[in-house]
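Below is a filled-in request sheet from our internal design queue. Each sheet records the structural input a requester submitted and the sequence that came back. We keep these sheets so that new team members can see what a complete request looks like end to end.

REQUESTER: design group, bay 2
PRIORITY: normal
MODE: inverse folding
CHAIN LENGTH: 229
BACKBONE (tokenized):
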């Protein structure tokens, strides 16, 4: 199942330290050859020691152009960008509107974007409007350009709703905050929220497949799957 994930939009939720970043890094990220990781807090330095690092958008775009020019198909860039630059990057990966033809994602034949702290990048209640619009567009239209998104948040209820509505999988670790549990219930139903509240062990995650409505548990070893009735 995890092998199919690079072509999907996946939202991972869980309180701080529950294992979101490790899950993405261990299971999903390494399987995709063309990846951009947005790192707002510097935690990816340890996780991805071999990735190329850039600290501004101009450098990232220059690097991507070079990789494309030299036909390099397997690469991984970790980018520490400002919110405004993240918005601009998303507009290059998944341009808005019909007439916008040039897309970096399409040029590469598909890019996977890893976003940590999505609630900071695309919050419901703050005014970073331009970035939020760019995120919304990337979620809504990104697949059209071959963009896959893997995003994580500690506070799903504070994240723009488009992220859950466009996700093919919502993955949750243990959650306890009432607002987050209500969010999980809205996305995956009562049972899914119950599993998140009391049915998960440390580092175990529940995977809600939006299309089929099924829930799978993934154990902390990253190998054992179990279907929940
Ligand atoms: N399956 C696992 N088995 C054992 N340890 C794990 C597992 N997953 C994560 N950890 C450990 O738990 C710690 C926190 O994990 P991680 O950074 O992935 O959490 P997070 O959900 O991304 O936290 P934050 O919200 O603060 O970013 C790390 O030290 C990591 O090594
Ligand atoms: Mg993390």
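RETURNED SEQUENCE:
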């Amino acid at each position: 199942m995890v092998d199919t994930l690079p072509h999907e939009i996946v939202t991972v939720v869980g309180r701080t330290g529950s294992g979101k970043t490790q899950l993405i890094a261990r299971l999903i990220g390494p399987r995709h050859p063309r990846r951009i990781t947005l790192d707002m807090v510097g935690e990816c330095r340890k996780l991805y020691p071999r990735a190329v690092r850039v600290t501004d958008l101009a450098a990232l775009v220059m690097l991507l152009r070079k990789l494309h020019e030299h036909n390099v198909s397997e690469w991984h860039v970790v980018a520490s960008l400002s919110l405004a630059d993240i918005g601009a990057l998303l507009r290059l990966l998944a341009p808005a509107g019909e007439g916008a033809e040039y897309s970096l994602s399409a040029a590469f034949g598909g890019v996977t974007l890893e976003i940590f702290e999505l609630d900071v990048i695309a919050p419901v209640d703050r005014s970073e409007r331009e970035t939020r619009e760019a995120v919304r567009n990337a979620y809504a239209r990104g697949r059209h350009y071959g963009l896959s998104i893997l995003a994580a948040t500690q506070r799903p209820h504070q994240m723009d709703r488009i992220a859950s509505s466009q996700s093919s999988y919502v993955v949750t670790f243990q959650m306890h905050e009432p607002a987050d549990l209500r969010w999980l219930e809205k996305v995956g139903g009562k049972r899914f929220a119950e599993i998140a509240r009391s049915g998960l062990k440390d580092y175990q995650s529940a995977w809600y497949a939006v299309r089929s409505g099924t829930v799978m548990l993934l154990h902390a070893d990253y190998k054992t799957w179990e279907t929940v009735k």
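SHEET NOTES:
- The pocket of magnesium ion (ligand 2) is lined by residues 20-21, 43, 116, 152 (CB under 6 Å).
- The chain has a mean pLDDT of 90.
FILED BY: M.R.
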